[in-house]
Amino acid sequence: MLPQEIIRTKRDGKRLTTQEIDDFVGGLTSGAVADAQAGAFAMAVYLQGMDVEECVALTRAMTASGTQLRWDLPGPVVDKHSTGGVGDTVSLMLGPMVAACGGFVPMISGRGLGHTGGTYDKFESIPGYVATPTMEVFREVVASVGVSIIGQTSDLAPADKRLYGVRDVTATVESIPLITASILSKKLAAGLDALAMDVKFGNGAFMSTVPDARALAESITSVAGGAGMPTNALLTDMDQPLASAAGNALEMAYAIDYLTGARREPRMHEVVLALCAEMLVLGRLAATTDEARSRLEAVLTSGEAAERFGRMVAAMGGPADLVDAPWAHLERSPIQVPVIAPSSGVVTAIDTRAVGLAVVVLGGGRTRPQDDVDHAVGLTDLAALGAPVGPDRPLCVVHARSEDAAAAAAARIAAAYTVGDDAPAPTEPVRERITAG
């Protein structure tokens, strides 16, 4: 194999064969392909694209580059993946809910990226929770509880890890074929029977427009189907934070409130139910989404979903009473400051990306991969689009380590919100449903 010839073929807009793709991915894994060549390949794909067959071949090759899990369980193995947003706490509730309905959810999550929060970081906010267990522990918890949520492991799709690291510094992250292969190679390596995709659009999403989000969703569902993993995708709105909380421990407490019924905000509830329902239908645990939603509401009402969450946390090393007493274990920040709007009115627009970056400024996210995360900081009581704000109703409450950090975050929040007299027309949080068929 000559990597430069494979790069030349794609650079010139020609189609790569499955063998050429297998050879190049093999070189990524073995080190035979240099970083410069990996970057050139990524740029060639970014500029020239790939057809579905090429993308399926790339996905399969990266899947085969490492460990591939196999399951022998009395029910379907299903999962969900989100393209990332602000206040996107869905995974924390979704896994236990689907498990309570008979599914098995081996969720391998990521750290925060840019302005978006990471599920991995949220679980690390729980004292004692081992977010990077051995594969044996992971398997045992999935089998006994029905769900285990852990961080990414180097065993799965190592070729993707290598290529992603190069893409991150070569301005090729946004390539739809490369995004597709990156997501699906890890999910296929996890041994899934089916996948539900949550593709975000809006000013807080990596895909800012509906057409861009739709193109990514169509690519993922088509390639996943071609690789033998049935996948449906929902396009969901990220023109405002999904939850009224953003920050690791704060979102964990929010998720527990949701599962116990202490608080279920309508937008979040709709997105959670919609994605869970797709998983139940794809896993043949329900014939229709309506039937699936009824089952999901039942496990919330009965407390079984909350009980599964608690069992998972305990099995992964966390406190057994986290669901009953979250703030006995989760860390609180010492300073809490309300952010008052400069004028009274209603929220007419939110720069959602800026809200996410306010959490990063507080220390709740990373500016460099090696940075530590402060799990206690973040935002609560975030005002939604159309909500009245004024002296008695702040834009949000900032949770910070210092007065200076709180002031810096408050300034960013004040700039991120637009307040006027007329509320915008309400929109549904789930815009479209995309299937391979």
Distance between the termini: 37 Å
Main sheet specs = 4 strands, mixed
| Second CATH tier, the architecture of the largest domain | 3-Layer(aba) Sandwich
Which CATH top level class of the largest domain fits? Alpha Beta
What is CATH's topology name of the largest domain? Pyrimidine Nucleoside Phosphorylase, Chain A, domain 2
Strand arrangement in the largest pleated sheet: 1-4-5-12
Principal-axis shape = globular
Count of separate DSSP helical elements: 16
Question: What is the total domain count?
Answer: 3
Mind telling me the CATH superfamily name of the largest domain? Nucleoside phosphorylase/phosphoribosyltransferase catalytic domain
The overall strand count is 12
Radius of gyration: 21 Å
Judged by helices, strands and strand pairing, the structural class is alpha/beta
Please bin the fraction of helical residues.
40-55%
Give the mean pLDDT: 94
> Hey, roughly how much beta strand do the residues contain?
5-15%
Keywords: Glycosyltransferase, Transferase
Domain Pyrimidine nucleoside phosphorylase C-terminal: 346-420
GO molecular function: 1,4-alpha-oligoglucan phosphorylase activity; thymidine phosphorylase activity
Family: Belongs to the thymidine/pyrimidine-nucleoside phosphorylase family.
Offer a few descriptive terms.
alpha/beta; glycosyltransferase; Aldehyde Oxidoreductase, domain 3; Nuc_phospho_transferase; 437 residues; Transferase, Pyrimidine Nucleoside Phosphorylase, Chain A, domain 3; four-stranded mixed β-sheet; Pyrimidine Nucleoside Phosphorylase, Chain A, domain 2; transferase; three-stranded antiparallel β-sheet
